[in-house]
Amino acid sequence: MAVKLDDNDWKRVLDGTDSKTPGYSVFCLPIQQSQQDDRKYRLIRLGNGLRALLVHDPSADKAAAALDVSVGHLNDPDDMPGLAHFCEHLLFLGTEQYPVENEYKKFVTSNGGSTNAYTSSSDTNYYFSVSSAHLRGALQRFAGFFHSPLFDPSSTARELNAVDSEHKKNLQLDGRRVFQLGKALSKQGHKWSKFGTGNRESLLAAGRALSSQPASATRENDEALSKDSLAATLAASSGMPSPALSAPSNSSSSDMDPDGGPAGRETRRRLLEWWESEYCAGRMTLAILGRDSLDDLTEMAVKLFSPVRNRGKDPSPSIKDSPLGPNEMGTIVFVKTVMDFRSLEICFPLQSQDAVYKSKPGSFIAHFIGHEGPGSLYSYLKRKGWAVGLSCGSTMLGRGFNTLRLNITLTPEGFKSYRLVLIATYKYLTLLRTAPLPAFHFAERQKLSETSFRFLQKQSADSYVSSLASTMQRPYASEHVLSGSTMFWDWDEEQVRNVSRNLNVQTGRVMLMAKSHDEIGIGDHWLKERWYQTEYQVQRLDSELVTEAQLPNDISDLYLPGPNEFIPDDLEVQKVEIYAPLKRPLLIRESPLLAVWFKKDDQFWVPKANVFLEIRSPLASVTPRHAVLTRLIAELVTDALQEYSYDADLAGLQYSFSSSSRGFQLSLSGYNSKLPVLLQKVLDTFRNLKVDSVRLAVVREQLRLEYENFKLDQPKDLGMFWMRYALRERAWTPEEKLAELHSINENDIQGFLNEILHRVFVKVLVHGNMSKSDALQVALKVETILRARPLTAAEIGLERSLILNSGSNHVWSTSVSNGSDVNSSLVYYCHVGDIKDDTLRPVLSLLAHVIREPCFYQLRTKEQLGYIVSATQVQSTGSMGLRVVLQSERDPKYLEARVEAFFDGFRDVLGEMPDEVFHRSKDGLITKKLEKLKNLNEEADRFWTQLTSGYNDFLRAANDAEALQHISKEQVLDHFMKFVHPSSISRRKLSIHCHSQRAKHVSDTAAELHPRNTIISDLVSFKRTLHVSAAATPVADLDDLLVSKL
Q1: Does 88 qualify as catalytic in the annotation?
Q2: Per the residue annotation, which of 88, 159, 643, 740 is the catalytic one?
Q3: Domains along the chain with CATH numbers
Q4: Whether the predicted model's global pTM rises above the 0.90 cut
Q5: pLDDT digit string (tens) for 754-813?
């Protein structure tokens, strides 16, 4: 191919006379990369305007690609909310080149990959991962989404149900409800007010309106309308929907027709028209990652995506106008929530931050407002007993307009005092406007961003390309496509001051959220938002509050943060030459009190480390009261450290202190230079905790809300909880814990802390850029600070699972407590064996791998039972099995019947599966098992999971991959028939049915349970009939792993 200069930054690669690859342009300047990034990049622009970033990673065992279209739900037609999201669903269901509905997903999943997509306000993002050898095949199937989708009438009609089910899944989620309410209360006519998810009503309304008009043409003519029609072309050029060729006839069809009837046909016609108008190559950005050379990746991108048409549309449609006008600013919206919590949110309009990405003034200001250290707004509100959480961030709502959002989680007292909370908030904003900003603030942000980017580690391939494709839509300089979202380059005080000047009581909109507003007495004139039926009231902030909020700051406890002492001062990496990375940590010290495991980083070479501690005690959860006491201690320790640890978190050093049924877990992760300092502080705070009655009251209230809100969880989550409860030897319900919570006082906690720390066993993992001597110093700190005696071997609790009896088929039913939730759920579990069984475990993993996509396709795509459908392998101590989960408006008995009908059909699918397809699926699973670790945390998590499980089976994935090589299709079928198929006389099955109170009761023989099932009347009594599994024991003798026994 010939090359010529396109402009100063791009060169044009011309297609030659004998070439089958069209021409394209290549970006010439170097792209700024992280020091850790060993990949090669090439940015190209196809002749149709589509831009592609190609990433060559020679070590990649997974390839991935993503395509982002700069069109989202703000581009929906006004009369068809949700059309962009609906289009996203439909593109997965067949193209002209690959018309079989599930071909794309089946190909990708069978080759060890996964697929997904999302629709946001201004973008729709599609992405997948696949084993590296099958990238081209996946791209061939993927590219057709954007130049030749089928939009099959039957698929279109059925997928309406999936979108509707997705919306109904969200109806009781407060995050979704409040988000949509905020959109609905935009100024009149603003596109931000649109309903993005869509549902059956919104997508069929236009078609149903037409169906009431007189028919003037035949149904055949209506169906003949294609995306290449003159009407669609004219509509594309005008930006308006074209008129229907005819009013659809409603004399012989209905919404139940395979194609959706007249309304369904009109919806499909409008969908074709919209896709033709909006999906333009110039609006698309593509990212492809693989181990193929840059030239090969370029060839794939150019050849497969050049057929996408450029329709001459604005490549980055944007909205410059804020959704908050004079009527919306300076108001307060009172909102009723589903869950029991109290929260205050303030949103301020903000100009788009993309044009000022080098200085990021919105992010810089949000850093101060969201600070949790001394002098911060949160510190003041917490000390007053008004708040238990605060966050602030600059967010792009849609392309062209941003918001700065401040959210405060309130205590009951803070809710009653919300006016004082607001006044304090606005006084802090006044402080930000008027106080000098010392240079060290920006210098710290700049240094931390540079350090973060410098030592940026790899992530999963599909997440990475999805992020890249999305970032490419931002107006960053092309050389900053990798760094633009992270780095701070320029200090521009005027830009910062411009942002802070616009944060005042007259420009913000307040939302005050709670389940009940009775205690603040705002009246009973509630309105309802259309799509979620969220109840709300809107009032203008009264003049007295506005006046006081505009006064200068007179709260002496509010001031800007000082220098951050946790910024790492030693970024040296202790790199050594190695032959190959170790695959497991080594036990470097073992005593009756503790076991210390250690692995020096030998492959990622970043100045970071992880330290994990598990402090075990048999007292941790022996009764519900003990479990609550243990949890309260963990929460109080976290509460006490909140101010101190915030600077560490900002500086890239995070910690977590939590409770479990075994005791306490502490994890620290980040730059290692200051990690020992934070470790010392956390352990000191834990061991010397002084329980304050005021803080206990606040923490206890938060725990009460958690326990009481449990019953309002999604039906699928309730079902999975009850399944875990049924199969755990010792477990307590939130209701049992709630009964103990109110009677616990500070003396109870103080006494229990001394008791539980009197005798413990501690498991330690030190991993990363630390030496063996550093690890032993960690152990010494633990021993010195905790001052505990060791447990006896018999006292170290051995967790076990309950095992279903052979030949049992049990069902336990319960109601969904949320009377407004239309969904029910089924959690269907078949026990297979002991997780330690090296022969059985790989067979189960292969069965779960090959059944996952057919289960989803049959029950979700074809039968449209609900948005949530999954089939997965699950495991616990001494146990493993296959679990199917569905959430649906259908009765759980009907769902169970359909699952068993699927199993019956899958027997034939598996038996008749061609050997080539089976071996390809097996190879895909082996690729997954052998997938390389991406970063330091991923390796640490893998080690810690094995250590806390008690199995210490660090080589499990590699051993299973080897075993998979020798597993035949007949073995998988035999195990399926023995352990899963309903006809098996020895299988062990338990299903949990969660029934919606709003379920329609219909007489349906298909919804009757098979007579083989036994109904469980009392779950606790049922548990007593089960036997317990073997406890976890290490797969290798610890002496074989012990480096030195001290």
Answers
A1: yes
A2: 88
A3: 151-278 (no CATH), 331-458+480-549 (3.30.830.10), 586-711+733-791 (3.30.830.10), 805-1028 (3.30.830.10)
A4: yes
A5: 999 999 999 999 999 999 999 999 999 999 999 999 999 888 878 899 999 999 999 999
